[in-house]
């Protein structure tokens, strides 16, 4: 654990003059500077963002523009076509949301295709890891399972999942997993997604020149597309990945660049989909490859992850994360990485430049994601994934011979516990026979746990790396807020020692007591960014468990992305807010800051309409204040802000209890 | 779960599972793998195992599967650093410990040491479970304490036991501290132990608490209708219905921790005297899970709060302990200071209603000698006359209230009461007398309890205790005249002469889907509530468990179906039961909870029915013992051909009238025949066959249907020539 994390939480660490709270980043950037290698960090320093674009005030949808609506009197200004600032800003964020929804959902589609192919016996070496979950998902989907083999059920679940993408009318099946009251609201507002793809396409249509020019309507359509991600594409991705790769249970691991091993062949896996991680691991564990590595002087083959591939493989196999998204170039800078194997999303083109300074092979594997100038493209044939993996691992191992003699691997790594699927959370609170969320609800009601916060999302080179996430997480746990983390925020938390059970020492008294009872860290790693759908499931289950209102919007809970960068984060924000969650984004400002009307609509307007909202607060201290306020208001509305009296049960009262 | 507790409990679970494995291996070695293994007289096999896993353990080798399940549940012991979550795994370890403990105890029945001797009681059979279960249903037993270990000294043990008895709790005892158990301590102080006094010594080892949990598990299956293997509902049922807790006295061992972890899954928290880590956050149990370092004098009160139990105690100004636990206590002849009735002296008890102006509330008078005026061992004439007034008091309620005298008086420590009216029998022990108990205290008890329990009916109570023989005889005549009036009125009270019946959902606390319909000619199947009781209860608590049912239109007089009753049943059963016949076994019979006194079961070959009472332990001609039969009909479902009943219904003129009445009965246990004989006189006279009971087979004749049929043929039983029962 680093020195910083040992100190008790204080205010925001303003002393960070460098670009990262993580000393390993600063060490690696010294190397980059010394060797004159550009990185995302150095470019952030040398290139300012476009201020008009940053505020959402630039419309470049048609060839009459780009139109920039800025400066004095901007509220009266119009684009050439007459578009108002709020229409322009709404269309811009809508298209980002469509992009994010497309990304998560296309990920989900690939998993559905894979499950179907497994069901049809078309993928070598793959079977169903979690049969219980397969049947559970089949039940959600209304699929008859009697008399069918496991593989037939898998095929049908895959088919039904695929149908959800192309469905044109009706409702997505998973909508039914939301609290009843939420479903009714969605129906009333006409935002229930009809099909995953349809809502994305329609949103692109609406925002093309000359279609939907009412910001409220555009944002409703954005929420609808986003709900199709959260309660569709992402939720399917999570469920089907659990079926194929196993539902996570707690594992021990370690995070940060120190997980790279000087005497091993180091292969980094980066991107988002678990299949890549899974087959690379299988290949790297084969005796043949290990033998090959040894014959070349390595002690073995070490696999580590970056970004959400790291999370997927950490959650299920304990693969150590070498770092979050901003660590992708830094890892290569160690000179100790034989191969950086990537699939889709959040992969910097700059990786190719950094890698070209070292022996590191940058291997792209997805037919959707090639990088100009990269050394190697080995396409993962979805029916024979292991073949491609074997080829990649072999080349990586052989590349060990080319490693420079002076690699620099920072020593820093922090131990962590990850693997908190929503199924496991139920289990851990009651064991096999009493699994439920009751203890969670009870301890929220009795105030030991003040509320729940999901700290999610990315890291962003425009703000000091890790500062926002670490500050927010530490402050929240110190204030008895149970935190769940996903995505890069989870890796950040891991790097800074916040995912160990010992971290309960930093938690407030009540939360600490709960952590001690259950044996958990106060910060639970629940997975990758598509696994934000697990958070939707948990929140719905908390509502269902009872005692905390009837809808997600009633819960003392917040969603926070302190260092967001990707448009996928905006999609997540939109589906969480549309599901009734209070969302706070930090770091860079609002992408619609140019339009006060829109800023106001996405906060108070959405709050009135959806019971959720999206606000942008750059200062992590403000985020914490707003989060605690939101939690306390929800507690007050639930009347659990005062100590609960102990109810003693006589026979009549017992008869009222559910058995 | 603190890590210390999690580690200890997990270690304890390993130890218990290993012991079970070793003992099983030894038993299989010495007796053979196919040797039968069972607890006595239960339909639930080894009940914890059966309930939680659905496994029916019948022979030794069946335990292999169970212990393999237990093994699979055993988790890693939490690590020093970077531990993985341990609450869920520890609860699993607790379940593993319970499965193994039940194997260990059952194996003792096969290879010893015997779990039962003149002191330790071992497994409670289904008769006990059902009989005692009723008390958990009606609230006369609000819960049980599972006591582990021994109190610091005998005196404290007795104090704790008395405190729990006064709070109406059952006290289940198993486990020892330094070789001494709580039960040993009570025995040494001469405290009466056993089911009757609610102080139940199970075993000197903590494993014996598997009998406590077996009791709880069976309650969920027998009364709650939960299917074996549906562990989730069995445990939730216990959390929300059986308000039990563990009292850990003295140092807590790993195996105690493991057993306590198992109890936590049932929602039963542990309250410990030792300074062990606490688990205060709530959720698996209703409130805290482990509370420790509690001094003995606060222990019971604290436990009740932690379990979330509300116990209503009426303070009664008498110098002895008071509570249902003392109802079963015996007062032997040599311990008796004074005795009345029981054919030894004239005696009676009587309650009458007077105008409010004529009752001086709180006036308790003894006319004749008080206890201090008597020699030890005296037999005296006794008349207890209770006079009440109340705006809502009705003459119909007089027998209801008077019938309470028996248990109200019996609840006093050192007082024995039997019988009723002018057939009562009373003893007061020397030790009660030594503590200052007087005859006037009988009046204090009756006044306090009647005012408390019948507050909505009774406003004022005065009691006169006559011990002067002339006065006793004089007042007994008045009482007898009143009894005669009542009997006449009761005889005229039939299903046809009243407009409303009453529902009874008292046992919905245990059997959520069952509803009794109580009519003048068919009492509740637990035997505790007749139509007048239900009427009075409704008066007391208009929104309570006894609701009036407007009979509505008579649909079928033979079956006993009315439109209003059907509508009521349909609604209250959540549309699962559409129709109900009051008088039929075969067509839409009434559902059963689990606390019925007897079962009527079809005997198809004989064209008749058998009746078996709960107390009959042997085989019956339908091929099942009472316990097994009971398991198939409880839980609020209609099973044509099988029905639970209150014994009083057997002598009703409407008994199975749809199937031809009492003539259909072809088999009853001998003991039940004798119990029912005096009550059946009128019915048999109507049948014109006063010796009909002798035409019924019983267990001394045959316990097989073929044997019964042979006997019926030999005595020319009418069922053989009646219309087909189908």
Shape of chain A: globular
Strand content of chain A: 5-15%
> What is the CATH C-level name of the largest domain in chain A?
Alpha Beta
Oligomer: heterodimer
**Under CATH, the topology of the largest domain in chain A is which?**
Rossmann fold
Structural class by secondary-structure content of chain B = alpha/beta
The CATH architecture category of the largest domain in chain A equals 3-Layer(aba) Sandwich
Give the CATH architecture of the largest domain in chain B. 3-Layer(aba) Sandwich
Q: How many E-type strands of chain A? A: 16
Rg of chain A (CA only): 24 Å
**Cα distance spanning the termini of chain B:** 58 Å
Provide a quick synopsis of the model.
With 659 residues, chain A is α/β, with parallel strands linked by helices. Helices cover 48% and strands 11% of the residues of chain A.
Please explain how this structure is put together.
The complex is a heterodimer of chains A (659) and B (726). Chain A is α/β, with parallel strands linked by helices and 659 residues long. Chain A has 3 domains: 81-245, Substrate Binding Domain Of Dnak, Chain:A, Domain 2 (Up-down Bundle); 257-402, Rossmann fold, CATH 3.40.50.2030; 434-637, Rossmann fold. Chain A is 48% helix and 11% strand. In chain A, the strands form 4 sheets. A 6-stranded parallel β-sheet of chain A has the order 6-5-4-7-8-9, with helices on both faces. A 6-stranded parallel β-sheet of chain A has the order 13-12-11-14-15-16, sandwiched between helices. In chain A, helix 5 packs antiparallel against helix 9 and helix 20 runs parallel beside helix 26. The longest helix of chain A is centred in the first third of the chain and has 35 residues, at 85-119. In chain A, 61% of the residues are buried. Chain B folds into 3 domains: 3-307, 3-Layer(aba) Sandwich (Rossmann fold), CATH 3.40.50; 333-404 and 417-482, Bifunctional carbon monoxide dehydrogenase/acetyl-coa synthase(codh/acs), Chain M, domain 3, CATH 3.30.1650; 500-721, Bifunctional carbon monoxide dehydrogenase/acetyl-coa synthase(codh/acs), Chain M, domain 5 (3-Layer(aba) Sandwich), CATH 3.40.1470. Chain B is globular and about 80 Å long. In chain B, 56% of the residues are buried. The mean pLDDT of chain B is 91.
């Amino acid at each position: 654990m680093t020195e910083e994390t040992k100190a008790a939480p204080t205010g925001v660490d303003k002393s960070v003059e460098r670009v990262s709270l993580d000393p390993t980043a600063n060490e690696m950037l010294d190397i980059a500077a010394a060797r004159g290698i550009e990185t995302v960090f150095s470019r952030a320093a040398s290139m300012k963002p476009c201020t008009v674009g940053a505020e959402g005030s630039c419309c470049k949808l048609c060839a009459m523009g780009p139109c920039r609506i800025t400066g004095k009197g901007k509220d009266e200004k119009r684009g050439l076509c007459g578009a108002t600032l709020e229409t322009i800003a709404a269309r811009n964020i809508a298209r980002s949301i469509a992009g994010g929804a497309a990304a998560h959902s296309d990920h989900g589609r690939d998993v559905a295709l894979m499950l179907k192919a497994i069901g049809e016996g078309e993928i070598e070496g793959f079977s169903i890891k979690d049969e219980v979950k397969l049947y559970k998902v089949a039940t959600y989907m209304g699929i008859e399972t009697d008399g069918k083999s496991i593989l037939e059920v898998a095929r049908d679940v895959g088919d039904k999942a695929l149908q959800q993408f192309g469905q044109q009318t009706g409702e997505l099946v998973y909508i039914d997993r939301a609290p009843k009251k939420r479903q009714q609201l969605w129906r009333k507002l006409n935002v229930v997604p009809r099909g995953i793809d349809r809502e994305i396409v329609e949103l692109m249509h609406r925002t093309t020149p000359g279609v939907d020019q009412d910001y409220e309507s555009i944002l409703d359509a954005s929420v609808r597309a986003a709900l199709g991600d959260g309660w569709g594409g992402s939720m399917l991705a999570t469920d089907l990945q659990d079926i194929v790769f196993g539902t996570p249970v707690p594992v021990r691991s370690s995070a940060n660049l120190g997980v790279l091993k000087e005497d091993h062949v180091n292969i980094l896996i980066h991107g988002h989909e678990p299949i890549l991680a899974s087959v690379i691991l299988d290949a790297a564990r084969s005796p043949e490859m290990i033998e090959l590595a040894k014959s070349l002087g390595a002690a073995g083959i070490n696999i580590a992850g970056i970004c959400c591939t790291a999370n997927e493989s950490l959650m299920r196999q304990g693969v150590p994360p070498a770092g979050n998204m901003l660590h992708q170039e830094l890892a290569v800078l160690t000179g100790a990485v034989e191969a950086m194997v990537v699939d889709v999303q959040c992969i910097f083109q700059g990786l190719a430049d950094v890698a070209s300074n070292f022996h590191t092979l940058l291997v792209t594997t997805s037919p959707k994601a090639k990088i100009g100038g990269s050394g190697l493209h080995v396409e993962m044939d979805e029916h024979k994934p292991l073949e491609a993996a074997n080829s990649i691992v072999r080349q990586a191992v052989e590349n060990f011979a080319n490693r420079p003699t002076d690699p620099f691997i920072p020593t820093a790594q922090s131990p962590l516990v990850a693997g908190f699927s929503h199924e496991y959370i139920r289990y851990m609170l009651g064991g096999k026979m009493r699994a439920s969320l009751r203890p969670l609800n009870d301890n929220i009601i009795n105030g030991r746990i003040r509320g729940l916060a999901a700290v999610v999302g990315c890291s962003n080179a425009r703000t000091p790396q890790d500062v926002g996430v670490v500050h927010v997480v530490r402050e929240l746990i110190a204030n008895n807020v149970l935190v769940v983390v996903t995505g890069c925020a989870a890796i950040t938390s891991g790097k800074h020692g916040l995912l160990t059970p010992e971290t309960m020492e930093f938690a407030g008294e009540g939360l600490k007591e709960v952590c001690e009872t259950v044996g958990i860290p106060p910060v639970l790693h629940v997975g990758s960014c598509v696994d934000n759908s697990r958070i939707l499931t948990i929140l719905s289950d908390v509502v269902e468990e009872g005692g905390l209102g009837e809808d997600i919007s009633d819960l003392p809970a917040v969603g926070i992305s302190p260092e967001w960068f990707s448009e996928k984060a905006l999609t997540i924000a939109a589906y969480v807010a549309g599901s009734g969650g209070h969302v706070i984004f930090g770091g860079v400002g609002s992408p619609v800051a140019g339009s006060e009307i829109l800023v106001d609509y996405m906060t108070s307007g959405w709050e009135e309409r959806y019971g959720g909202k999206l606000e942008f607060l750059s200062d992590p201290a403000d985020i914490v204040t707003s989060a605690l306020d939101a939690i306390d208001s929800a507690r007050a509305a639930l009347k659990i802000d005062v100590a609960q009296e102990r109810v003693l049960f006589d026979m009549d009262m017992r008869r009222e209890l559910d058995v | 779960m603190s890590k210390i507790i999690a580690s200890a409990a997990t270690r304890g679970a390993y130890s218990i599972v290993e012991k079970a494995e070793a003992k099983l291996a030894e038993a299989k070695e010495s007796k053979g793998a196919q040797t039968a293994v069972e607890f006595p007289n239960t339909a639930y096999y080894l009940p914890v195992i059966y309930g939680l896993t659905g496994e029916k353990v019948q022979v030794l080798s069946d335990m292999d599967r169970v212990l393999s399940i237990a093994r699979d549940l055993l988790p890693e012991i939490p690590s020093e650093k970077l531990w993985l979550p341990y609450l869920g795994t520890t609860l699993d370890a607790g379940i593993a410990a319970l499965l193994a403990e039940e194997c260990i105890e059952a194996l003792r029945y096969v290879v010893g040491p015997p779990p039962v001797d003149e002191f330790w009681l071992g497994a409670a059979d289904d008769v006990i479970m059902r009989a005692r279960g009723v008390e958990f249903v009606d609230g006369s037993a609000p819960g049980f304490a599972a006591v582990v270990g021994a109190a610091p000294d005998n005196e404290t043990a007795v104090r704790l036991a008395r405190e729990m008895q006064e709070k109406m709790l059952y006290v289940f005892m198993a486990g020892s501290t330094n070789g001494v158990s709580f039960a040993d301590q009570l025995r040494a102080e001469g405290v009466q132990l056993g089911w009757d006094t609610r102080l139940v010594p199970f075993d000197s080892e903590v494993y014996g608490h598997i009998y406590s949990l077996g009791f709880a598990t069976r309650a969920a299956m027998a009364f709650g209708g939960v299917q074996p293997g549906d562990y989730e509902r069995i445990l939730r049922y216990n959390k929300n219905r059986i308000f039990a807790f563990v009292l850990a006295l003295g140092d807590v061992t790993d195996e105690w921790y493991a057993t306590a972890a198992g109890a936590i899954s049932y929602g039963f928290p542990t309250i410990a005297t030792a300074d062990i880590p606490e688990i205060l956050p709530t959720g698996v149990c209703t409130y805290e899970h482990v509370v420790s370092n509690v001094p003995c004098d606060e222990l019971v009160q604290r436990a009740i709060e932690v379990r979330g139990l509300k116990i209503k105690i009426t303070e009664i100004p008498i110098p002895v302990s008071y509570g249902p636990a003392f109802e079963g206590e015996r007062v032997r002849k040599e311990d008796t200071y004074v005795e009345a009735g029981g054919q030894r002296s004239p005696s009676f008890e009587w309650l009458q209603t007077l105008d409010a102006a004529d009752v001086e509330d709180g006036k308790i008078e003894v006319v004749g000698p008080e206890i201090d005026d008597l020699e030890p061992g005296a037999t005296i004439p006794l008349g207890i006359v209770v006079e009440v007034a109340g705006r809502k008091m009705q003459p119909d309620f007089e027998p209801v209230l008077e019938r309470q005298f028996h248990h109200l008086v019996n609840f006093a420590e050192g007082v024995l009461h039997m019988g009723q009216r002018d057939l009562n029998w009373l003893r007061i022990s020397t030790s009660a007398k030594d503590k200052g108990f007087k005859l006037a205290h009988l009046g204090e008890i009756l006044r306090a309890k009647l005012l408390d329990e019948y507050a909505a009916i009774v406003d004022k109570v005065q009691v006169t205790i006559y011990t002067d023989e002339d006065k006793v005889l004089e007042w007994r005549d008045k009482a007898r005249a009143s009894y005669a009036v009542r009997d006449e009125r009761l005889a005229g009270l039939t299903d046809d002469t009243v407009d409303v019946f009453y529902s009874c959902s008292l046992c919905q606390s245990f059997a959520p889907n069952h509803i009794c319909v109580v009519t003048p000619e068919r009492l509740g199947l637990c035997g505790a509530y007749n139509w007048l009781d239900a009427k009075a209860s409704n008066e007391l608590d208009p929104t309570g468990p006894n609701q009036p049912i407007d009979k509505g239109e008579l649909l079928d007089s033979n079956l006993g179906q009315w439109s209003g009753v059907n509508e009521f049943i349909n609604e209250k059963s959540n549309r699962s039961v559409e129709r109900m016949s009051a008088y039929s076994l075969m067509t839409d019979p009434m559902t059963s909870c689990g606390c019925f006194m007897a079962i009527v079961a079809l005997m198809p070959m004989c064209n008749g029915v058998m009746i078996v009472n709960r107390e009959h332990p042997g085989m019956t001609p339908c091929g099942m013992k009472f316990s097994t039969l009971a398991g198939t009909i409880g839980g609020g479902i209609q099973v044509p051909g099988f029905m639970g009943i209150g014994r009083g219904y057997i002598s009703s003129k409407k008994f199975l009238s749809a199937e031809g009445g009492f003539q259909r009965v072809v088999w009853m246990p001998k003991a039940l025949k004798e119990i029912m004989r005096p009550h059946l006189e009128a019915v048999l006279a109507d049948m014109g066959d006063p010796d009909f009971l002798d035409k019924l087979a019983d267990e001394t004749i045959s316990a097989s249907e073929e044997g019964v049929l042979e006997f019926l043929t030999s005595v020319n039983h009418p069922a053989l020539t009646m219309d087909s029962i189908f």
